[in-house]
Amino acid sequence: MDKNRQKSAPVYEALLSFKKKRVVPFDVPGHKRGRGNPELVELLGEKCVGLDVNSMKPLDNLGHPVSVIREAEELTADAFGAAHAFLMVNGTTSAVQSMILAVCKAGDKIILPRNIHKSVINALVLCGGIPIYVDVEVDHRIGIALGVTVEDMKKAMDENPDAVAIFINNPTYYGICSNLAELTKLAHERKMKVLVDEVHGTHLYFDEELPMSAMEAGADLAAVSMHKSGGSLTQSSILLCGENFDAEYMRQIINLTQTTSASYLLMSSLDISRRNLALRGSESFVKVAKMAEYARSEINAIGGYYAYGKELINGNSVYNFDVTKLSIFTQGIGLTGIEVYDLLRDEYDIQIEFGDIGNILAYISIGDRIQDIERLVGALEDIKRVYGKSDRDQFCGDFIQPEVVLSPQKAFYSDKEQVPLDETDGRICGELVMCYPPGIPILTPGERITRDIIEYIKYAKEKGCSLQGTLDPEVNKISVIKQ
Amino acid sequence: MSIWFEQMDTDNVKTAVRVEKQLFGGESDYQRIEVFQSKEFGKMIVLDGEIIFSEADEFIYNEMVVHVPMAVHPNVKNVLIIGGGDGGVAKNLIEYGEIEHIDVVEPDEMFIQVSREFFPETAKGFDDPRVEIHNMDGLRFLRRCIDKYDLIINDSTDPFGHTEGLFTKEFYGICSRALREDGIMVSQHGTPFYDEDEAAFRAMHRKVYKCFPISRVYQAAIPTCPSGYWMFGFASKKYHPLIDFNPVRWKARGIKTWY
Q1: Helix, strand or coil for residue A362?
Q2: How many CA atoms lie within 13 A of A388 on its CB side?
Q3: d(Cα A127, Cα A110) in Å, to the nearest integer?
Q4: Are A211 and A258 in contact (CB under 8 A)?
Q5: What DSSP line would sit under A244-259, residue for residue?
Q6: Active site residue: B155, B182, B195, B197, which one?
Q7: Phi and psi of B159, rounded to 5°?
Q8: Distances in Å between the alpha carbon of B169 and those of A139, A280, A316, B130, B206?
Q9: B155 a catalytic residue
Q10: What is the distance between the alpha carbons of residues A449 and A451, in angstroms, rounded to a whole number?
Q11: pLDDT, tens digit, for every residue of A249-266?
Q12: % pLDDT > 90, chain A
């Protein structure tokens, strides 16, 4: 990384000099620097709406960048050690989906773990790819899916030598990392591409103490959620390309679904955040890791809770652990993660990232202060004192490996019928069913529904998880393929 | 020349005091600290733009948070002050001979130093051998305490600033656990006059109410506070502030007060 070059932020600078010119707008957006929408100016501020402008010559065009956006992308690639980088304005969802659309045509097999984000399944609905699920180990104490082991991946590759790519989520939401370098090597030996969902891993590029990043491991493509640990605005993201991937083809794929009115607020936030990360990222993330470690030790001192960390590492299914993540197993105090999540919000005014059946995840970032950590720890202690139960006999978010009967695309577009949840045992699912957050599907189109899955959905509903993805907003009925 | 210090009470109301000179200005890890010399109020200490106390009116606050619970609880031995970096609360407490130990938990060392330097009269509360200062976050300190104190005084400054965590449900819950079965907690509840402050005051009272069987509020007039009007919370596991109030016993001590 060229630190001197990283001091510039071309999109941001172009916006500033554009602003000074006081150009009269006879183009979109129609709010015309906010004058046509005073309430919006009141809410967002004059500066913000003044920078909400359209693509034009001095500001470049995201669909076909030749000047400042191209420069910003080159700087981003340099900062992340990638061959190419793309600024993304429709969430990391679009980055994940573009990766899959770029390697997978109808009928192509792609090997992936089942605990992937719903955006992956949706991309397979679009392109007609066939998911091959590699086995995923579960830690039964805390009820979370672990990483992909080299042996399991090798087995899946040997059984499916015609697969075009492997897809790995690394780190997982909970901070679990797989042996990316070895998995990449195995895939490349078999001419398979390596796609990495690095939604929760922006910081891996800026702190050597943290687990290996996708680009360092030699992956072909990685989707990096800059708006999470990177500090940019919500919905902004980046897609990284390794050496041996045709970047211009990647651009064409991105343009299939990308807006032609890309927001300069999002792009400039990516530009500024990239500069921040390149210049000051490493010191920030050392601080974040320290705060998370402090929180872990204080939470574990309460008793009942288990804030897990590096001790999970086993050289295989937990190859490494991202210590900036603060994931906490809550069932030791007799409450599910979702119950603790709701209590924190409703009773203590603390909003955390998510709660699932067994765990909560508190997102720690460069914006946090130690006194806020004290509040979280204090609240968890109070919850144990006031709401804790001794009942430990709970369903611990076990992970169910599904049987894929039809491709997601085939199932999604088949004739379907709405059937009450309890009567779906043995039927083929025609839609996504998931708890959001975290957005990892319980069922995807084309999978066989079992009694275990039905019970899991009922339990999640009863505990207050927000279930999404189904036609029926109450999830009392599931769309299944007509027999 | 005339220099005015302005405290924004709300977006549209301010309290202004003509300042003779600035005696100190500095930034700690937690807040901006300033000390001004003024005519009517003498020296004033300002944290993040808000007057915390002045020489002229500090006695009101300090007497009200100390003597009210001390006139109710018959046997206070162990006291915890959360915040209290100026020493004023401790100064009033050490007048009670029966108190054996006073813990002061103030994370901001600079605030203590500045108080010692510019307000030696107030800060002399720290010099008593029964007083022990802990430079630590209040929530963190309290997490280790169970069934330990007879009286907890929450003397932290601002529900919207860095001490925000000391005005929350978890804080009151942890306080309740740290108190003995007949313990009392007194906390400043801010001013109830302006809308935003009133909402914060109500929220605080509601939270305390959920954690203690007895929860009442009382008030005092403090000129340098926004609106000049200040509220305190009296929360207790056993003693009622009116039923168990014992003026005879308290007067027998012969403690001199100003308010």
Answers
A1: strand
A2: 16
A3: 12
A4: no
A5: TS-HHHHHHHHHHH--
A6: B155
A7: -70, -10
A8: 34, 36, 42, 30, 9
A9: yes
A10: 7
A11: 999 999 999 999 999 999
A12: 78
Cα A458 to Cα B65: distance, rounded to the nearest angstrom: 53
Q: Which of B29, B170, B174, B175 is the best residue to mutate to test the A interface, defined by the most A CB atoms within 10 Å of its own CB?
A: B170
CA of B139 to nearest chain A CA: how many angstroms apart? 6
Query: What ipTM was assigned to the predicted interfaces of this complex?
Result: 0.73
Look-up: residue for tokens 């006695």? B59
Q: State which of A155-159, A392-396, B2-6 shows the largest mean pLDDT.
A: A155-159
- Tell me, yes or no, if A381 comes closer than 8 A to chain B by beta carbon: yes
Q: What are residue A130's DSSP bridge partners? A: A109
pLDDT attached to residue A456: 87
pLDDT at residue number A204:
96
Could you give the 3-state DSSP secondary structure of residue A30?
coil
Residues of A in contact with B139 (CB under 8 A): 371, 374-375, 377-378
Taking a C-beta distance cutoff of 8 angstroms, is the pair B197, B165 a contact? no
The rounded distance, in Å, linking the Cα atoms of A17 and A122 is: 41
Cβ separation A371–B173 shorter than 8 A: no
Band of residue A371 on the pLDDT scale cut at 50, 70, 90: confident
B50, containing H or E segment: strand B50-54
Tokens of B213: 């069987």
**Please, which pLDDT band fits residue B160 given cuts at 50, 70 and 90?**
low
Single-letter amino acid, residue B152: I
Contact between residue A175 and residue A121 where contact means Cβ atoms under 8 Å apart: no
Residue B207: per-residue pLDDT: 85
Predicted pLDDT of residue A174: 93
**Contact in structure between A304 and A333 (CB atoms under 8 Å):** yes
Per-residue pLDDT tens digits for A79-119: 999 999 999 999 999 999 999 999 999 999 999 998 889 99
Q: Is B169 on the interface with A (CB under 8 A)?
A: yes
B105: enclosing H helix or E strand: strand B101-105
Residues with Cβ within 8 Å of residue A428, at least 6 apart in sequence: A405, A406, A411, A446, A447, A448, A449, A480, A481
Peptide bond into A473 cis (omega under 30): no
Answer whether B19's CB lies under 8 Å from B4's CB: yes
The yes-or-no verdict on residue A396 having pLDDT over 80 is no
